[in-house]
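Work Package 4 report. The design task specified in the project plan requires that, given a folded chain encoded as C-alpha cells, an amino acid be chosen for each position. We show below one input record used in the internal validation round.
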C-alpha cells in the first residue's frame, strides 16, 4: 500500500526528508561544475567517490558482504513488507534508503570496471548479479495495481547501468585524448597524437573486456558488443569532429590509416577479439561522404606525387642517354636503374595506399600513372633510337633489361591494376621491346633475305650450296656482339631471330616454283635437314620456347613429300589443328606447290581442312605464326586455275 505521503507521480512525498543518494557519476559531475580552482578533476572525482563510499557503509553496514546477497535480503524485506495490509511507514522509508545505498554500491562497482584488480572484478560480478536480480523484481511488480507497488519500483537498474557505461566510455576517451603520454611524443602533429592515444585506449579497454570483464556478465547481455558499440560511437564522434576541420595531407593520411586499417584490422580483428565483435553492425568510423572527401584529398595528393616521381626518374634517365655515357655494367651486362626506381615508387605508393584506403579498386587512380609513364618511356626510347648516338647500342641493351623487369612486375600485380590497364601496359612494353630488338635485328634481317633467296634453287636442292649453314655462321658472328646483353634478354632476342628466320624460310618456300615430283621430295628432304640445323643452333642458344618452329618446317616438308591426295589432306588438317592461324589462303598456296592433285582434289582438301580445323582449335594451340605469312598473290593464281571458291 502507498500512503498519502507519496504517490507514483510524487514518489518522494514526505520521504523527501531522507535525501536520495546519487550515483557517483552525477556527484563528480556536479562537483566539477562548482568553482574548485585548487583541485584537479581527478582529485574531485576521488573525493566524491570517497564520500559515496562512506555513505554506503553507513547505510548498509555490510562491508565485505556480497551485493547480490544484500539485494536478495532487501527484496525479501520488500516482499514481506508489501504483503501486509498496512506497511509501516518507517520500515518503508528505511527500505527505500537501503535500496538507494545498494544502487550506489552497484554504480561504484561498475564505475571501477577498468580498474585492474581481482577484488574489483569480484565486486563487479556481484553488482551485475544484483542488477539482474533487481530487473527480475521490477518485472514481478509489473501489472500489479499501483496502490500496491513500492514507490522505488521499477528501479530500472539495467537502463541506469547502460547510461553509466556510456559515461564511462566517454570519460575514458576524453582523458585519453588529453593525456600527453610519452609513447606518442614521437608523432609529428597534435592530431596524430590525439588519434593514436584514443585508438590505443579503445584497443586496451576492449581487450580488458574480453579477457576479464565479460566474465562478470551473463552471456545474454553480450557486454563485449555493448562496450564495442559505445567505444565505436564515441571514437567515431571525436574523429568526425577532427575530420571536419581542414586537415593537412599528412594528418589526413594518418586519420585514414586509423579509420581504414588500424581500427578494423589491429583492433576489431585482434586475435582475442576476432569473430566476437559484430563488426557489420558497427560500420565505418566515418560517414561515407566524409570518408570519400578525405580519401579524395589523399588520392589527389598521392597521384601528384607518383606522377612527379615517375617523370623525374624518366628525365634523369634521358639525361644519362644524351650525355653520351654508356650505362653501368653489372655482372658483365648493361644495366639501368630506371625500372627499379619505377617499381619502388609504385610499390611504396601502393603499400601506403593499401593501409589507408579501404576500397582497393581505387588504386587504379595511382596505377593509371604507370600506364602514362610507360607510354612516355616508349616515346623517349623511339626518339633516341632515331638519333645518331654512339652509345645507342649499350643504352638499348640496358633498356631491354628494364623492359623485362617492368613486364615481370606488371604481370605479378594482381589487385592494383585493372585488366585493361595491365593489357595496355604490356602492349606498350611489347612495342618498347620491339623497338629495341629492331636496333639489333634490322641488319640481320636484311642478310636473311639475301641468303634465303638461294632456297629452292638447283644448287640448294642437290646439296652443293649449304644456304642454312652459311646463314647460321653469320648469325653466330653477329651474336658475339650481344655478349653484354643480359642472358634472359639475349635468349628472348634469339627467339625473335628464330621466328624471323623460319618465317622468311616459309615465305620463300610458298613463292617457289617447284615443277616436278622429284623436286618436291628432294626439297622436303632438304627442309628436314635445315629444320634440324636451325633447331639445334637456337636450342644451344637457350631458345627452348621457340623450338616448336622446327615442327612447322617439318610439317610443311611432309606436305611436300606426300603425293597421295588423302595423305596430304590428313597432314594439312593436322597442321590446321595445331596452328589455328593457318588460313585457307595458306592451304591454297601449299597445294599450288603440288603437281599431282586435281582441281577437285584441291577443293576437297580445302573444304576438309576448313570443316575439321575447329575440332582441335582449342587444344595444342601454338603461338601465331602463319598470320605473319602474307599470301595475297595466291588469289590471282587461284582465279587463273579456276579454283577460287
Amino acid at each position: 500500500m502507498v500512503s498519502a505521503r507519496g504517490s507514483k507521480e510524487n514518489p518522494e512525498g514526505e520521504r523527501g526528508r531522507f535525501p536520495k543518494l546519487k550515483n557517483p557519476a552525477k556527484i563528480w559531475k556536479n562537483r566539477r561544475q562548482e568553482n574548485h580552482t585548487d583541485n584537479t578533476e581527478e582529485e574531485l572525482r576521488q573525493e566524491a567517490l570517497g564520500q559515496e563510499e562512506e555513505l554506503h557503509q553507513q547505510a548498509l553496514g555490510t562491508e565485505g558482504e556480497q551485493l547480490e546477497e544484500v539485494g536478495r535480503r532487501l527484496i525479501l524485506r520488500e516482499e514481506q513488507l508489501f504483503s501486509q495490509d498496512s506497511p509501516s511507514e518507517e520500515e518503508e522509508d528505511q527500505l527505500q534508503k537501503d535500496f538507494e545505498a545498494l544502487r550506489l554500491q552497484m554504480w561504484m562497482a561498475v564505475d571501477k570496471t577498468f580498474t585492474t584488480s581481482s577484488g574489483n572484478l569480484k565486486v563487479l560480478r556481484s553488482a551485475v548479479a544484483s542488477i539482474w536480480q533487481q530487473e527480475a523484481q521490477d518485472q514481478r511488480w509489473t501489472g500489479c495495481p499501483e496502490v500496491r507497488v513500492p514507490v522505488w519500483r521499477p528501479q530500472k537498474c539495467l537502463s541506469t547501468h547502460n547510461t553509466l557505461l556510456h559515461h564511462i566510455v566517454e570519460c575514458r576517451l576524453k582523458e585519453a585524448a588529453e593525456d600527453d603520454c610519452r609513447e606518442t611524443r614521437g608523432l609529428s602533429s597534435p592530431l596524430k597524437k590525439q588519434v593514436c592515444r584514443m585508438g590505443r585506449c579503445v584497443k586496451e579497454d576492449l581487450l580488458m573486456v574480453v579477457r576479464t570483464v565479460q566474465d562478470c556478465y551473463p552471456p545474454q547481455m553480450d557486454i563485449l558488443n555493448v562496450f564495442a558499440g559505445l567505444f565505436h560511437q564515441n571514437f567515431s564522434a571525436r574523429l568526425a569532429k577532427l575530420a571536419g576541420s581542414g586537415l593537412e595531407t599528412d594528418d589526413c593520411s594518418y586519420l585514414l590509416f586509423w579509420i581504414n586499417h588500424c581500427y578494423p584490422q589491429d583492433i576489431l580483428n585482434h586475435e582475442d577479439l576476432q569473430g566476437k565483435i559484430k563488426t557489420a553492425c558497427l560500420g565505418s568510423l566515418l560517414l561515407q561522404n566524409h570518408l570519400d572527401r578525405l580519401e579524395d584529398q589523399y588520392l589527389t595528393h598521392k597521384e601528384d606525387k607518383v606522377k612527379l616521381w615517375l617523370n623525374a626518374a624518366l628525365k634523369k634517365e634521358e639525361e644519362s642517354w644524351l650525355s653520351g655515357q654508356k650505362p653501368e655494367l653489372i655482372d658483365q651486362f648493361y644495366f639501368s636503374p630506371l625500372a627499379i626506381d619505377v617499381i619502388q615508387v609504385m610499390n611504396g605508393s601502393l603499400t601506403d595506399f593499401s593501409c589507408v584506403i579501404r576500397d582497393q579498386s581505387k588504386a587504379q587512380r595511382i596505377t593509371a600513372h604507370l600506364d602514362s609513364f610507360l607510354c612516355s618511356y616508349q616515346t623517349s626510347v623511339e626518339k633516341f633510337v632515331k638519333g645518331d648516338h654512339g652509345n645507342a647500342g649499350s643504352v638499348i641493351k640496358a633498356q631491354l633489361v628494364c623492359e623485362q623487369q617492368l613486364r615481370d612486375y606488371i604481370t605479378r600485380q594482381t589487385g592494383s591494376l585493372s585488366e585493361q590497364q595491365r593489357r595496355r601496359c604490356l602492349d606498350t612494353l611489347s612495342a618498347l621491346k620491339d623497338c629495341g630488338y629492331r636496333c639489333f635485328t634490322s641488319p640481320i634481317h636484311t642478310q636473311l633475305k639475301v641468303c634465303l633467296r638461294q632456297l629452292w634453287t638447283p644448287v640448294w636442292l642437290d646439296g652443293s650450296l649449304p644456304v642454312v649453314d652459311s646463314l647460321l655462321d653469320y648469325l653466330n658472328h653477329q651474336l658475339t656482339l650481344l655478349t653484354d646483353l643480359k642472358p634472359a634478354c639475349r635468349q628472348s632476342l634469339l627467339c625473335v631471330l628464330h621466328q624471323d628466320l623460319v618465317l622468311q624460310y616459309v615465305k620463300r618456300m610458298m613463292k617457289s616454283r617447284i615443277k616436278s615430283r622429284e623436286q618436291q621430295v628432294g626439297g622436303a628432304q632438304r627442309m628436314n635437314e635445315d629444320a634440324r640445323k636451325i633447331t639445334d643452333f637456337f636450342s644451344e642458344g637457350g631458345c627452348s620456347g621457340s623450338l616448336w618452329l622446327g615442327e612447322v618446317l617439318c610439317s610443311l616438308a611432309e606436305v611436300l613429300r606426300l603425293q597421295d591426295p588423302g595423305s596430304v589432306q590428313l597432314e594439312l588438317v593436322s597442321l590446321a589443328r595445331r596452328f589455328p592461324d593457318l588460313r585457307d589462303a595458306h592451304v591454297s598456296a601449299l597445294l599450288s606447290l603440288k603437281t599431282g592433285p586435281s582441281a577437285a582434289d584441291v577443293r576437297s582438301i580445302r573444304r576438309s581442312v576448313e570443316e575439321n580445323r575447329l575440332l582441335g582449335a582449342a587444344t595444342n594451340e601454338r603461338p601465331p605464326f602463319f598470320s605473319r605469312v602474307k599470301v595475297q598473290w595466291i588469289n590471282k593464281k587461284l582465279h587463273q586455275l579456276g579454283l577460287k571458291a
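Residues 288-322 form the longest helix (35 residues). Validation will be extended to a larger panel in the next phase.
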